[in-house]
Design goal:
Layout lengths: L11 E2 L4 E2 L23 E13 L4 E12 L6 E6 L3 E9 L12 E4 L2 E3 L8 E6 L7 E9 L7 E4 L11 E4 L20 E8 L5 E3 L3 E4 L6 E10 L7 E3 L2 E6 L2 E5 L2 H7 L3 H12 L7 E5 L8 E4 L2 E4 L4 E2 L2 E2 L1 H13 L11 H20 L26 H5 L3 H15 L1 H12 L9 H11 L10 H8 L9 H16 L2 H8 L4 H10 L6 H11 L7 H14 L5 H10 L3 H11 L3 H14 L5 H11 L2
Parallel strand pairs: 3-13, 19-20, 20-22
Antiparallel strand pairs: 1-2, 3-4, 4-10, 5-9, 6-7, 6-10, 8-9, 11-12, 12-17, 13-16, 14-17, 15-16, 18-19, 21-22, 23-24
Helix pairs in contact: 2-3, 2-4, 3-4, 4-6, 6-7, 10-12, 11-13, 12-14, 14-16, 15-17, 16-18
Length: about 625
């Protein structure tokens, strides 16, 4: 980033010699965040510079962070940051008023008193730093620290000996509030900051982060990354491992243990980028990075600015699922711009990204999927009530399907091109206007009140946003899936199978979900013979298929189900299966045995969730 000066003072930044910025405008105070200790009404982070050293042997990061914070309250004498299980080695402040100091001298760091407050099971521990009152508008701090081996936001992956193309890897899961387990910071969606990161690693390890990258020559373990767009702390991501990189196009790359196979699977990325630019304008990052994660990766994808970490389940039959790939690309494109100051508004980014992902696919492949079944709209409101919720529930409370279908429904009123234009206008909203539910509702109502189309009523909007249950206007979606399910349960399979093989995974899974429990064993056996569902390489279809078999009591599916549970790590795919198994005494006994076998290869969070099911 560029060198900036204020009052003839220059700030030297950590060992890597980068420079801190001095001259951005102070942010305005905001309401508190129930999942953060940070006093963002008094201090607000604008930029961080981070130096990290990796130690795989002890599973630890040694870190030093320099922070620029706007001082919003001159009378404030304490800065409170978020931490979880960090060892704080020292805190110092850069002195700006040393007698005789000149810009040619190195800055002086003065130690500050600090302490860690009482630990909270959800929020971690507050780091309380004592400060003198000051009218200086900028505070520059340095904190030296170490992470814990079992830090909640760090995953140290050591592959099983038989795991093919599964590499040694460290990766982070910062969202929703786990960045504080590997960096002491204001871990709140109310914060927007830029960053520069310097990573020291073992020779031969590849480092991937969001932002513009600069790597040392000869791969000698020195990497720098700069994020120049202000983003929330949950956008921090780090992957370090035995990975290979392969270009996908002029502006896209894939990192994987087997990069050549991954490159073939993600061949649609560059056409998707081009389709997206017709809808959203130029891609705002230097390149789009896809990282194929280990089997234990607990979710389908985690998307960051310009970067997507994807589960290997996105690759089915050596071809990436186009819908999920488009979702990941779109989230990396606009997700940070739609991150609101409150976790309850996360649905906006999910819904808008889902809409534009579908529009990208329609641009590439036409509207042939319009008649295919889709999942019924989730019954959870878009705007979740997070009062008293645990941090894990912050993400679980956002139904991606319902958000996408909300805009699908709105498009039936005003047309898809109008939705494109409205959402692009909202994306370009004035600085300081947050992406909140109330702001989006107000925006839509104002723009749609022009009489050009049948504007939705406030009651209809509220039904999607706040009401529990399937919105009345979404009944057609469920009907489509039900019709497809009836075909699976009763039509001539020879003719139907040709059509089914053309369906995307989500459509086939939605149809399987809607098949009645009363389907007989003979029909299930015929479906399996014709479509090879028990051996499908598509993990999403596999989850829906095995769920149907469990509902219908189809015992022959248990043998392939065991293999599926031993080789799939995504919580959203395997948790419902364990819940179904646990509903009967015999199923619970079987599930406990399989869980004991699979647990060593599961993500710790996934293992905890499944433990609660099989050993309540």
């Amino acid at each position: 980033m560029s060198i900036r000066r204020c009052a003839a003072r220059v700030v030297l930044l950590l060992a890597c010699g980068a420079w801190l910025s001095w001259s951005r405008a102070a942010a305005a105070p905001a309401p508190g965040d129930d999942w953060s200790f940070a006093n963002v009404q008094q201090f607000r982070t604008r930029h961080i510079e981070l130096s990290l050293t990796l130690d795989f042997d002890v599973q630890q990061l040694q870190g030093a962070i320099a922070m620029e914070l706007d001082r919003l309250d001159p009378q404030a004498t304490q800065l409170i940051l978020d931490t979880r299980d960090l060892t704080i080695l020292g805190v110092s402040v850069q002195s700006a008023d040393i007698v005789g100091a000149t810009e040619h001298l190195a800055p002086l760091w003065i130690s500050l008193p600090f302490h860690l407050g009482k630990a909270d099971p959800i929020r971690g521990s507050p780091l309380v730093i004592d400060l003198p009152a000051s009218r200086e508008p900028l505070l520059v701090l340095r904190i030296d620290y170490e992470t814990a081996p079992k830090a909640r936001g760090l995953r140290w992956h050591l592959p099983a000996p038989a795991a093919k193309h599964d590499a040694r890897m460290l990766y982070t899961l910062s969202a929703p509030i786990n960045a504080r387990s590997w960096i002491p910071l204001q871990d709140s969606p109310q914060v927007r900051m830029t960053w520069r990161v310097h990573v020291h690693t073992d020779h031969g390890l590849t480092v991937v982060m969001p932002g513009v990258a600069q790597h040392a020559k000869d791969n000698r373990g020195e990497d720098w990354f700069a994020m120049q767009q202000p983003v929330p702390p949950a956008a921090l991501a780090l992957v370090i491992g035995e990975l290979r990189m392969k270009p996908l196009g002029a502006r896209s790359v894939v990192f994987a243990g087997d990069a050549s196979t991954a490159a073939r699977a993600f061949g649609d990325v560059e056409p998707l980028l081009q389709a997206g630019e017709k809808l959203l304008g130029r891609y705002p990052f230097e390149r789009f990075q896809v990282v194929v994660m280990p089997t234990a990766f607990p979710v389908a994808d985690m998307d960051y600015p310009g970067t997507a970490l994807v589960s290997p389940t996105l690759v089915a039959g050596h071809v990436a699922q186009p819908g999920l790939l488009a979702d990941a690309l779109t989230q990396s494109w606009i997700g940070a711009r739609l991150a609101g100051p409150d976790w309850r508004d996360r649905w906006i980014g999910e819904a808008v990204a889902g809409w534009f992902a579908a529009r990208m696919l329609a641009t590439l492949h036409g509207a042939t999927s319009a008649a295919m079944p889709a999942a019924a709209a989730a019954e959870t409101p878009l705007v979740a009530d997070l009062q008293g919720a645990g941090y894990d529930d912050i993400f679980n409370a956002v139904p991606r399907t319902r958000g996408r279908q909300f805009f699908d429904w709105l498009a039936t009123r005003v047309g898809p091109e109008r939705i494109d234009a409205l959402l692009n206008e909202f994306l370009q909203r004035p600085k300081g206007e947050e992406a909140t539910t109330e702001n989006l509702l107000s925006f839509l109502q104002q723009r749609l009140a022009d009489g050009k189309a049948a504007a939705p009523t406030r009651a209809e909007l509220d039904d999607w946003l706040y009401a529990t249950g399937t919105p009345a206007v979404a009944a057609g979606t469920a009907a489509t899936a039900t019709q497809a399910a009836a075909a699976l349960a009763g039509s001539d399979l020879k003719g139907l199978a040709v059509q089914l093989r053309q369906w995307p995974a989500a459509s086939l899974a939605a149809a399987l979900d809607a098949v009645p429990d009363s389907i007989d064993a003979g029909r299930l056996a015929a479906l399996d013979r014709e479509l090879a569902l028990s051996a499908t390489p598509d993990a999403v279809v596999g989850s829906a298929w095995f769920a149907l078999c469990l509902r219908a009591g189809y015992a022959p599916a248990l043998i392939p189900l065991e293999h599926y549970l031993l080789t799939t790590g995504r919580l959203d795919l395997i948790e419902p299966l364990y819940e179904q198994l646990a509903a009967s005494e015999s199923g619970l006994t079987w599930a406990r045995r399989v869980f004991a076998l699979s647990r060593p290869g599961l993500d710790p969070f996934v293992a905890r969730r499944l433990q609660e099911i099989v050993h309540p």
